Amino acid sequence: MNSSFDGTETRAICITIPLHVNSDGAWTNLTSPLTNFSLPLLEMQMIAVFITTQVCHLVLSSFGQITKFVSQMLAGILLGPHVLGGIKGYGEFLFPLGSQELLATIALLGYTLFVFLSGVKMDLGIIFRTGRKAMYTGALALLTPLILGMGTQKLLGDFWGLSGNEKLQLSIAAAIHSMTPFPVIAWLLSDLKIQNSELGRLGLSAALVSDLFSAFLISCCNLAKVALVHTTRRALIDLGIILCYLIVVVFVARPAMYWVVRQTPEGRPVKDLYIYIIVLAVLGAGLLSNWFDQLIVWGPFCFGLAVPSGPPLGSALIHKFDCMVSGVLVPIYVTTIMMNVNLSDINLHSNLAMAHAIVIVVTIISKFSSCLVPPLYSKMPINDALTLALIMSSKGVVDLASYSFAITLKNVNVEMFSLSLVTVAVTASIVPILIRRLYDPSRKYAGYQRRNLIDQKRNAELRILACIYRPDHIPAIIDLLENVSPTRENPLAVYVLHLIELIGRATPVFVSHQMQKKTLSNRSYSQDVILAFSHFQRNNHEAIAMNVFTAISPSKLMHEDICTLALDKLTSLIILPFHRKYSVDGSIELEDNTLRTLNCSVIDRAPCSVAILVNRSHPRRPSTPAVAASYSIAMVFLGGNDDREALTLAKRMVKDSSISLTVVRLIPEGEEGITDWDKMLDAEAIKDLRYRTAGGGDNVVYIEEVVHDGPETATKLRELIDDYDLFIVGRRYNVESPLTSGLDEWSEFPELGVVGDMLASTDFNGWCSVLVVQQQMTM
């Protein structure tokens, strides 16, 4: 018997008792194929789905920004009746009717867990922080297409004389197409890597508002259907059970979750017992949802909202289940649904099909247009407004599941089901490509103002953004800021950004901590950072203005938070910690490649100058008779924009009399005086140092050394490495010079430049820290 993919036929299936689950092996009974046994057949089906989705994504991704969801839908079409399904015997071999129930059950379980995890990732607190723009956009994205879609189906139904059941089907289709599911928007923004951009945050906030409205309306519609099909009494009983369930979730389950969080020591994993209890509760919530006539995913979704997002509980659930759910089970769910699409069922010659197509067009246009109104009214650039409207108009797995539930409950017919899923596939394919065309989050960093140290006015406030990734970065950054010599005459504005990786939640968080507040909230992020820097501010009263921020976002997108904050606060310098942590004996204690990737991304996009601090954890080098000051700095000057920027910072540091500065200028052998404008600027930058050194009695020393090539430069640096506490150098990326010839091939970290890489190398094993400076590049 051939398999049916359109769901319109009723067939009798014979099942052998006892069930054949495991095979005795291919060689035991050659006349009985492995597909006669349920477990090998299920494994073959999962392998077929996995290979097909991966091949589709590999092919489609070469043509542009095609999401994995589109690849999964295409895989379902390929495995369906129009391609492989048309091969004789294919359906009975790989997808026989008797196996489809088991595969569909596993797929639906995967989608239920996906919806639960989506609830876990949601932060309902964002509702109270959502601005009017996001609130209005989210409300209009649902209400406008819903009202216009319903009005259109009423007009068309009366015009063509459609039956009451056909009008109901059109109403359900209009309602489903009007939704803006939060998981769909979060998945899209994650694929496009813009969820923590300003526009991405706005889209997530608007989608959350719209999704909560949608969940409320769906529940009301289900209760209305119960009252219509059964009795009003049953609908009221269901409503009472729903309210009781919500009360239990809010006043019992959520406090219990916070109790679990309090019972988990900081930095320790959540006990497995608590995870098991939560999983059992999720399965029970799905069973309860069916009991009071709601969709099976309704209860798990509400229960997921009760889980505190982020570490330790929310992140533990995401870490344990998200890979299997999103990587294996959801693709199976999407693929199996699309296998039921039969394009031959789509016939636009009937009145119902034409009405359905018109309703879909009206809801799409009205949703897109309504989402343009709030951003354009608030003077948002037209490209950004169009991008936001496209984001809100996107379709995904939740829309697919809604139509699947609708055809299962016989709320829509097969023809409407197939056309709706084709519409979802087309929308999901086009929207990411258009967004990429319209929106480039990095373009906002291309400013036309010079935000660097050289162009800063004399005695003006120096604005610095200091980034903290790990607790050991705090004392190193504070020590460096202390040596920048903040005074009342030369004030310092420091913006501290604590970076935390986003785990266990879908919405990035950006928190501004008010330093004036005397108490910390129970859920305060970055307590150690706040306390350390507030103490530093008190020790430098009236010389430093301090603001602390926390950014919780994906590690691959943290550079967006750094660059955006630097742009908003008009900082002149960003200080980044080096990705290596050194032990006391000079060996490498920790190497964080995630932090290195972040540093490289910031260097490429920063709207101001950038400095990477390589901190040595050695104790302070003891003072020697040759160095009377308590802190000694060496600045290696080879010439160029970055070196002049580094020299400017060094000059500011030496305003403190307890700090000594030695500027070592390396000159190539045989160089002829000033021959170009760049060398003129170099000479001007060091002119005052010559005069100060010649006058004597100062804490500044200027030395000129003539070197022949790169190896001689390395030898000279090795001689100086143990005489100073801090080396300041320019990055000089891709600058060719006889001074560094032959050293480029040995450079391990391009973000430090050739000289900085040498000084940070374990081969040198010096006492000193290194600060590598790059002047503002984006102009």
Automatic annotation (TrEMBL):
PANTHER family: CATION/H + ANTIPORTER, CATION_H(+) ANTIPORTER 3-LIKE. One of its GO terms (biological process) is proton transmembrane transport. It is found in: Membrane. Belongs to the monovalent cation:proton antiporter 2 (CPA2) transporter (TC 2.A.37) family. CHX (TC 2.A.37.4) subfamily. GO terms for molecular function: antiporter activity. Keywords: Ion transport, Membrane, Potassium, Potassium transport, Transmembrane, Transmembrane helix, Transport. It is a multi-pass membrane protein. InterPro entries: Cation/H_exchanger_TM, CHX17_2nd, CHX17_C, CPA2_transporter, Na+/solute_symporter_sf. The chain crosses the membrane at residues 37-60, 72-90, 102-122, 134-156, 168-190, 202-227, 239-261, 273-292, 298-318, 323-341, 353-373, 417-435. It comes from Morella rubra (Chinese bayberry). This is Cation/H(+) antiporter 3. It comes from the Eukaryota. GO terms for cellular component: endomembrane system; membrane. Residues 492-617 form the Cation/H(+) antiporter central domain. Residues 630-776 form the Cation/H(+) antiporter C-terminal domain. Its main location: membrane. Residues 55-436 form the Cation/H+ exchanger transmembrane domain.
